[in-house]
C-alpha cells in the first residue's frame, strides 16, 4: 500500500496528464497534478443482437448478475413480497448466508452463468438489478459500475440503490432508490415506463461509448 501511494504520487506529478475511471480516483490524482481527467471505462461490444420484448403481462422478470454477497438482502427480500416479480440471481454465493431468500418461491439462485446461457437470461430480463449495500462505494467511489455497461448492452433499464456520484445518464436508463420500499416501487416503475424507443436509446448509447471512442478521447487530451 505504501509503495502504491508513493509511486502514484510520483507518476501523476510527472505525467503530461492523468485519466481516471471514476470521480473518486480523479480527485485522488488531483492531489498530485493539475491535469486530471475523467475517462470512463467503456462497453464491451458483445456478439449479441438483443430484440425488444413487449412484456405486457403482469409478471416482471428482474435479473441480477454479479457477486451475490454484494447485494442488499433486505431489499431483495422486500421485493420478493410482490409475487408477480420473479427475481433471478446469477453469480457465486454461499447458501448459508441466504437461507431466508432461498426459501422464497419467486427468488431463483442460478449460480454462475457464462456464454449463451448467460445471454439467454439477460435477453429475457425486463429489469436489471444492482441493489448494492449502502456504504463507502455507493457514497464516494462508484461513478459508472461495469455492471451497468453489461445491462445496457441488452437495452434494459437498471434499478439500483442511491449512488451519489453516479455519472449522468439519460432519463429512463437508471432508477435509484434510497430504501427498500423505493427499490420495489422503482422496479415496478422501470418496467411500466420501458418502451421500444427507450430500449433503442440504450443500445445507441452503448455504441457511442465503446473503447474506440475512449481512445479518441485520450488522443485528444494528448494533443
Care to describe what's here?
The protein has 223 residues and is of the alpha/beta class. 42% of the residues lie in helices and 16% in strands. Strands 5-4-3-6-7-8 form a six-stranded parallel sheet, sandwiched between helices. The chain has a two-stranded parallel sheet with strand order 1-2. The mean pLDDT is 95.
What would the average pLDDT be, to the nearest integer?
95
Low-confidence spans: pLDDT under 50, at least 5 residues? none
Radius of gyration: 19 Å
The H-and-E topology, N to C, reads as HEHEEHEHEHEHHEEHHH
**Strands ordered across the widest β-sheet:** 5-4-3-6-7-8
Strand count: 8
Largest sheet: 6 strands, parallel
Which structural category do the helix and sheet elements fall into? Answer: alpha/beta
Give the end-to-end Cα distance, rounded to a whole number of Å: 33 Å
Number of helical segments? 10
Approximate shape:
globular
Give the fraction of residues assigned to helices.
40-55%
Percent in strands: 15-25%
Amino acid at each position: 500500500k505504501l509503495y502504491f501511494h508513493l509511486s502514484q504520487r510520483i507518476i501523476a506529478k510527472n505525467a503530461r496528464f492523468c485519466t481516471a475511471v471514476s470521480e473518486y480516483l480523479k480527485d485522488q490524482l488531483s492531489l498530485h497534478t493539475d491535469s486530471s481527467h475523467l475517462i470512463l471505462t467503456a462497453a464491451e461490444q458483445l456478439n449479441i443482437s438483443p430484440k425488444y420484448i413487449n412484456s405486457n403481462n403482469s409478471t416482471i422478470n428482474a435479473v441480477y448478475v454479479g457477486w451475490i454477497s454484494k447485494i442488499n438482502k433486505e431489499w431483495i427480500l422486500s421485493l420478493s413480497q410482490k409475487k408477480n416479480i420473479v427475481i433471478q440471481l446469477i453469480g457465486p454465493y454461499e447458501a448459508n448466508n441466504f437461507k431466508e431468500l432461498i426459501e422464497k418461491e419467486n427468488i431463483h439462485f442460478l449460480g454462475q452463468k457464462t456464454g449463451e446461457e448467460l445471454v439467454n437470461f439477460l435477453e429475457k430480463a425486463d429489469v436489471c438489478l444492482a441493489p448494492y449495500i449502502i456504504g463507502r462505494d455507493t457514497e464516494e467511489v462508484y461513478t459508472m459500475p461495469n455492471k451497468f455497461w453489461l445491462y445496457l448492452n441488452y437495452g434494459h433499464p437498471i434499478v439500483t440503490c442511491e449512488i451519489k456520484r453516479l455519472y449522468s445518464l439519460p432519463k429512463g436508463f437508471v432508477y435509484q432508490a434510497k430504501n427498500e420500499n423505493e427499490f420495489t416501487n422503482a422496479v415496478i416503475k422501470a418496467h411500466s415506463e420501458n418502451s421500444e424507443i427507450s430500449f433503442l436509446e440504450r443500445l445507441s448509447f452503448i455504441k457511442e461509448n465503446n473503447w474506440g471512442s475512449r481512445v479518441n478521447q485520450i488522443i485528444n487530451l494528448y494533443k
